[in-house]
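---------- Forwarded message ----------

FYI, see the Glucose 1-dehydrogenase record below. Original note from H. follows.
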Amino acid sequence: MDGEVAVVTGAGAGLGRAIATTLASAGMAVVAVDLSLQAAETTVAAVTGAGGRAKAVEVDLGTANAGEAIVSAAAQAFGRIDVLVNNAGIYRPGGRLPDLDWDLFERTCAVNLFGPLRAMIEAGRHMQPGGRIINVSSMESLRPSGPGIANYSATKAALNALTRQAAVDFADQGIRVNAILPGLIHTEGTSGAAKQMFDMIAAKAPSRRIGEPRDIAGAALFLASPASAYVNGHCLVVDGGITISG
């Protein structure tokens, strides 16, 4: 993987930063994409501080030209793109269906679904055979955790289907497409959750703990590496067994 280039969206914190630094530790140059340039630069500092190469890029994944902007930045910085990790996403409850927040639903679709789609299309035009695309979906695409998150669960379920279809559509180009479905993970986004909830879920999970960003980063490294050369169109659940615990 030395000399290859990975683009990671939503790289400014949490899962994205862990994925970016993990891929960099495997020898890849990283384009850290985030809505906040300052957050992306923090990830770049972590990569370069460990001796890696990285470039920070500010892009709103919900805009129509997001895919072009990401690929252009990668080409200008490193001249190529080998791995795309679509990690950016919105997780905000949009209300129960009778009281649906339509503006939030549409914004969630723009970032969680159309953003990865645009990025895949543009990256696919520039990747050589052997390119890899990794979409970060969610366990909640399989089983919503509660009411009021139709905007999130629906877009992530659609991303799963898009992942499988993309694996078929990119097959002739030799590009593999897979997805990771994280369970509950300790991140900035979940830091406000009650400890009681974490303890209850951890007690039910066969792994007896809540996930950490490194757990998802490890899965991303696997899907980006030659070790997963025969894995394609797969949605990999990484949740410590929560989805089978009832």
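H. also flagged this: The first strand starts at residue 5 and ends at 9.
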